[in-house]
Design goal:
This protein has eleven helices and 35 strands. The N terminus is likely disordered. The N and C termini lie far apart (about 50 Å). It is mostly beta strands and about 550 residues long. The strands form six sheets. The chain has an eight-stranded mixed sheet, with helices on one face. A six-stranded mixed sheet has the order 2-6-5-4-8-10, with no helix packed on it. A hairpin with a 2-residue loop joins strand 26 and strand 27. The protein is globular. It binds CU-O-CU linkage and copper (II) ion (CU) (2 copies). The site of one copper (II) ion has 6 residues, from loops.
């Protein structure tokens, strides 16, 4: 590597995430914005409209059941907020919702009756909530058309943004694609303290951003999609392509969910005249970080969430700040050259005959553009923030957000998990999913570390565990574009510093996580560990986990 290249990487590293130098985080909008320079894609997209904001009814409407039982009907429905064709309807106190955003207090009991009015089986999974097997919804038979299933569980999880979506094996990708998902906001004291400190009002200055790429209304997965995951040609933000949000000169909180089947985003901010701007990372999948971090960008894979602040308090009326997904190497089976040469030296001990024997077909970029989709890792503007009003706003970001107690891994046993491809399918430890089988058996109330290793000649896999949150301990042999963003000597990214339920493992990378399998439920429980690239999941890149 030349010196120049090294300096460049160092500079890139500095562009990653940093602990806060002080108390304030000015993200200065470059001024004055050249009107109209908002990115070719958005300008070209006449369809772009205002960002959809969840209200107190309707699509993604905010619904606090306060312990009241809810009836959720899964059905085919014309998409009012986008091109979705399936969803969940709920009626509550005279209000009608589609895919309600459930607002739940930590400790609250949730009672939901699911009615399947679809023509195919379905079942709901509460992604990120630590519930027992019956309520987790994955290791149980799905609900046949016309049947019902009832959930009762206590929400023990930290305040954060979680989500719900179907989990009928083999049908999950299509149902999520068609619009069957919703958000869950779990509230707790840390959440309330943050909202109070920054005067955040949900639906106004605190806004969810649901990212989903689409390729038409119907779900049609080709062989190439089943291999790589389905990539669309439009990216919807809350159901709209390249929407705008009119804002005032203050701090905004965005709670981002990547609800895409397969696409990873490299999120960053930019002024209309092209300057990169930083944001504050507040939290990850399962709650707030201990302390905020200033970040220039963050990768967000399928099912991952990030919680960020954008400080526009110095912005002038007329400024525009853009949220974009930046260019990166998607690394779909095309690792070659010096890094691939390290493969056997660094990871020879993990090589298994089955996975060595077969290499997934190399990516054909022309083929990946099928149906007009654009490849993963392409720069695209996602959202325009248009500053329309100057207001007096003086709040400061708190220095402490929550308490994160590291899992004690002293007594932990380590479990190796290899992600690979063989006999035409993505596999975990050379296996594919079979209902009723639990190749991963864990002793309850113990701590384990999982060493998840991805082959060099692979693609990124967003690995998700049901039932338990985990902590990322270490990343090793990360590709350059990831290593450049590390924030500590363990190779971790800023987004690895909070509680997680999904972690992206890049080709050639080893990610070590810690899981405390303390189980609050009597009896043996079964959960899932799988790739959240939905085509990989439906294709069997999933294993049952028995905790007994
Ligand atoms: Cu988002 Cu197995 O789940
Ligand atoms: Cu899950
Ligand atoms: Cu995968």
């Amino acid at each position: 590597m030349s010196m120049r290249r090294r300096d460049l990487l160092k500079a890139l590293g500095a562009l990653g995430c940093a602990a806060l130098p002080g108390r304030t985080l000015p993200v200065r909008a470059a001024s004055p914005a050249a009107a109209g320079v908002v990115g070719d894609y958005c300008v070209a997209n006449a369809a772009s409209g205002a960002l959809f904001l969840p209200a107190s009814a309707g699509w993604f409407g905010r619904l606090a059941p306060d312990g009241a039982p809810l009836t959720m009907r899964a059905l085919t429905i014309a998409g009012a907020a986008g091109t979705w064709t399936q969803g969940f309807t709920v009626e509550h106190r005279g209000r009608r919702f589609v895919n309600p955003t459930l607002i739940i207090e930590r400790g609250e009991r949730v009672r939901i009756d699911l009615q399947n009015a679809l023509l195919e089986p379905t079942i709901v999974h509460w992604h990120g909530l630590a519930v027992d097997t019956h309520n987790d919804g994955a290791a149980v038979p799905p609900v046949a058309p016309g049947e019902r299933y009832s959930y009762t569980f206590d929400v023990r999880d930290r305040g954060s943004l979680y989500w719900y979506h179907p989990h009928p094996h083999g049908l999950t990708a299509g149902q999520i694609y068609r619009g069957m998902f919703g958000l869950i906001e779990v509230e707790d004291d840390d959440e309330r303290a943050l909202r109070a400190a920054l005067d955040l009002v949900p639906g106004k200055s605190e806004v969810p951003l649901i990212l989903q790429d689409r390729r038409g209304a119907e779900y049609t997965a080709t062989d190439s999609d089943r291999l790589h995951g389905l990539f669309g040609n439009d990216i919807l933000v809350n159901g709209t392509v390249c929407p705008y949000l009119d804002v005032a000169s203050r701090i905004y909180r965005f709670r981002v969910l990547n609800a895409s089947n397969a696409r990873t985003y490299r999120l960053g901010l930019r002024s209309a005249d092209g300057k990169a701007l930083s944001f504050t990372l507040l939290g990850t999948d399962a709650g707030l970080l201990a302390a905020p971090r200033r970040c220039d960008e963050a990768f967000v894979a399928s099912a991952e969430r990030i919680d960020i602040l954008v400080d526009l308090s110095d912005a002038a009326v007329g400024d525009t700040v853009l949220l974009e997904t930046r260019a990166f190497d998607p690394m779909h089976m095309e690792m070659a050259g010096p890094v691939a040469a390290m493969d056997h030296a660094a990871m020879g001990h993990m090589a298994s005959p089955a996975a060595e024997a077969e290499t997934p077909p190399a990516v054909d970029h022309a083929a990946m553009g099928h149906g007009g989709s654009f490849p993963e890792g392409t720069l695209r503007t996602l959202l325009q923030l248009r500053v329309r009003e100057r207001i007096a706003y003086r709040a400061r970001i708190p220095e402490r957000l929550s308490t994160i107690v590291p899992i004690d891994v002293g007594p932990a046993t380590e479990r190796p998990l290899r992600l690979g491809f063989a006999k035409g399918r993505w596999r975990i430890n050379d296996r594919v999913f079979a209902m009723g089988e639990t190749p991963i058996e864990v002793k309850r109330d113990t701590v384990e570390t999982w060493l998840i290793r991805n082959y060099f000649n692979s693609m990124p896999h967003a690995m998700h565990l049901h039932g338990f949150h985990f902590q990322v301990l270490e990343r090793e042999t990360s590709p350059e574009q990831i290593a450049a963003l590390k924030v500590d000597g363990h190779g971790r990214l800023a987004t690895d510093l909070g509680w997680k339920d999904t972690v992206l493992v890049w080709p050639g990378e080893s990610v070590k996580i810690a899981i405390d399998f303390t189980l609050p439920f009597a009896g043996e429980q079964t959960y899932m560990f799988h790739c959240h690239n939905l085509e990989h999941e439906d294709g069997g890149m999933m294993l049952g986990v028995k905790v007994a």
